[in-house]
């Protein structure tokens, strides 16, 4: 594996891109969008494997850590988020800490996260209140530590700060997986300050940046190797800080790569999923959870996929995968509320006995339905609300006087006044390192 890293990073040339363009592109990296649905489905499978049905237990025995270590999908999300945030915002935020740019960034992130989050928290909050009122057998949620249902805690959930003074994940969030959203919200608020430092690292050699990105994942990998779990006081903070920062650094490393590394990157991107899967399986032989140490490979995987448009990147960039990536945030939010309703039904509906065919069919239907519900939530709530909220602070389009418009039109004409218009000199140059993936789009995640 060290050889694979060396092959990539030693092809980098300091300050060089084939076009000579040093700025970062903007737009959607479709391969990484597609990777998001892989991470989301990994987390969904991990949570569903706790379902108390014999059929689910049988699947768990066959797939083993490929399912039971699905919590690693959250760490993969953190790395992807750091990469994409750096790709989209670092050049605007990095040169200096400016209040206006910081406010625009924070507002854009809030518009992206909060509308659907608030809806899911309120709907699921009503479910928790109903269980409190009409009986809950000592538990209102399927969590090891029961969440507190109170007005004060409701306000904390709304603000997304519920994790900030919690040492452990359990019981902090009404909707269990939203602990990571609270952690990522903290990362977003810190990023404008951290960006000033990251921006000054952008000219370091790619091998230094890439190596540092992988090194940042070692604290969590060490926890997996020694205890089989990354669960210790404030480990959530280590996970988001290291994963997010690793994503930023690997984005800077990718920018330093030459375009001719795409062939090698394709081979690495095709090899790593198998290496990660094998590492999970072999690690389990050392002890439960030890395979989680494969987390150190996540920055390398994200960087390799960002560099290529062949191999697995072709699959992840297909329309169905990209759409899956776009609804992945909604899927992450809605799946646990749906599972909790199903798990409650398993406890109280006699027809859904654990050994009945009906229980297994309903469970499969619920699992598949999470994707449909996520698509509806994305199309009906998340994306429309994001657009409307962003429009509130969108600056008005500047209209040039007639004389200046005429001059601009002449500037865009080739010599002699004939032929197609050429792009204005200030137009963004396409960054060749991201060939095949750069596309102007709304994607801001």
How would you characterize the overall build of this protein?
- By secondary structure, the protein is an all-alpha fold.
- The protein has one domain (2-395).
- The chain has 18 helices and 2 strands.
- The protein has helices spanning 2-9, 30-48, 54-63, 65-68, 72-93, 99-134, 151-159, 179-199, 206-216, 218-227, 235-255, 262-286, 298-307, 312-316, 319-326, 328-348, 357-392, 402-411, and strands spanning 28-29, 438-439.
- Strands 1-2 form a two-stranded antiparallel sheet.
- It is globular, with a radius of gyration of 23 Å.
- It starts with a helix and ends in a 6-residue tail after the last strand.
- Residues 1-26, 403-433 and 435-445 have low confidence and may be disordered.
Mean pLDDT: 85
Radius of gyration: 23 Å
Distance between the amino and carboxyl termini? 30 Å
Content-based structural category: mainly alpha
Overall shape: globular
Strand proportion, as a percent range, falls in: under 5%
Residues in helix, %: 55-70%
Uncertain segments of ≥5 residues (pLDDT<50)?
1-26, 403-433, 435-445
Write the layout of secondary structure elements.
Layout: H1 2-9, E1 28-29, H2 30-48, H3 54-63, H4 65-68, H5 72-93, H6 99-134, H7 151-159, H8 179-199, H9 206-216, H10 218-227, H11 235-255, H12 262-286, H13 298-307, H14 312-316, H15 319-326, H16 328-348, H17 357-392, H18 402-411, E2 438-439
Antiparallel strand pairs: 1-2
């Amino acid at each position: 594996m060290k050889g694979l890293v060396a092959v990539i990073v030693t092809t980098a040339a300091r300050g060089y891109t084939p076009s000579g363009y040093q700025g970062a592109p903007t737009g959607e990296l479709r391969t990484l969008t597609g990777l998001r649905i892989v991470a989301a489905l990994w987390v969904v499978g991990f949570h569903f494997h706790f379902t108390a049905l014999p059929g689910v237990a049988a699947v768990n025995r066959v797939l083993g850590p490929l399912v039971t270590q699905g919590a690693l999908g959250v760490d993969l999300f953190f790395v992807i988020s750091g990469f994409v945030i750096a790709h989209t915002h670092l050049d605007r935020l990095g040169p200096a800490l400016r209040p206006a740019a910081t406010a625009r960034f924070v507002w854009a992130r809030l518009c992206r996260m909060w509308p659907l989050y608030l809806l899911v928290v309120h709907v699921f909050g009503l479910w928790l209140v109903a269980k409190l009122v009409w009986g809950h057998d000592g538990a209102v949620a399927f969590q090891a530590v029961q969440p507190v249902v109170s007005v004060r805690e409701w306000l904390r959930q709304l603000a997304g700060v519920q994790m900030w003074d919690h040492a452990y994940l359990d019981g902090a969030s009404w909707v269990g997986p939203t602990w990571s959203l609270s952690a990522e919200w903290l990362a977003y608020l810190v990023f404008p300050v951290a960006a000033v430092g990251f921006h000054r690292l952008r000219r370091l050699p790619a091998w230094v940046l890439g190596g540092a990105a992988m090194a940042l994942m070692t604290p969590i990998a060490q926890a997996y190797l020694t205890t089989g779990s990354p669960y210790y006081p404030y480990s959530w903070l280590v996970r988001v800080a290291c994963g997010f920062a690793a994503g930023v650094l690997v984005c800077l490393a990718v920018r330093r790569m030459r375009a001719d590394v795409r062939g090698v990157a394709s081979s690495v991107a095709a090899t790593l999923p198998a290496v990660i899967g094998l590492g999970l399986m072999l690690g389990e032989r050392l002890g439960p959870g030890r395979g989680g140490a494969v987390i150190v490979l996540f920055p390398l995987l994200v960087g390799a996929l960002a560099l290529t448009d062949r191999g697995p990147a072709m699959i992840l960039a297909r329309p169905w995968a990209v759409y899956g990536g776009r609804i992945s945030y909604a899927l992450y939010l809605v799946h646990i509320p749906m599972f909790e309703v199903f798990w409650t039904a398993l406890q109280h509906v006699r027809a859904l006995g654990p050994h009945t065919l009906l229980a297994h069919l309903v469970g499969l239907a619920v699992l598949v339905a999470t994707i449909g519900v996520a698509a509806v939530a994305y199309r009906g709530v998340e994306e429309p609300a994001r657009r409307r909220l962003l429009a509130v602070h969108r600056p008005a389009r500047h209209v040039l006087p007639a004389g200046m418009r005429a001059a601009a039109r002449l500037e865009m004409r080739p010599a002699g006044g004939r032929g197609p218009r050429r792009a204005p000199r200030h137009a963004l140059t396409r960054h060749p390192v991201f060939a095949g993936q750069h596309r102007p789009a709304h994607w801001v995640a």
